[in-house]
Amino acid sequence: MGVSGITGSNLAEELVEQGWTTYGLARNPNVRIDGLLPVAADLLSPESLSAALADVAPTHVFFTSWMRMQTEVENIRVNAAMVRNLLDALASKKSVQHVALVTGLKHYLGPFEAYAKDGFLPETPLREEQPRLDIENFYYAQEDEVYAASARDGFTWSIHRPHTVIGKAVGNQMNLGTTLAVYATICKETNRQFRWPGSEAQWNGLSDVTDARVLAKHLVWAATTETAHNEAFNVVNGEYFRWKWLWKRLASWFEVEPIGFDGTIQPLETEMAQDATLWRDIAGRYNLVEPDLSRLASPWHTDLDLGRPIEVMTDMSKSRKLGFTVYRGTEESFIDLFNQLRKDRLIP
Question: Stretch 189-212: mean pLDDT, rounded?
Answer without folding.
Answer: 97
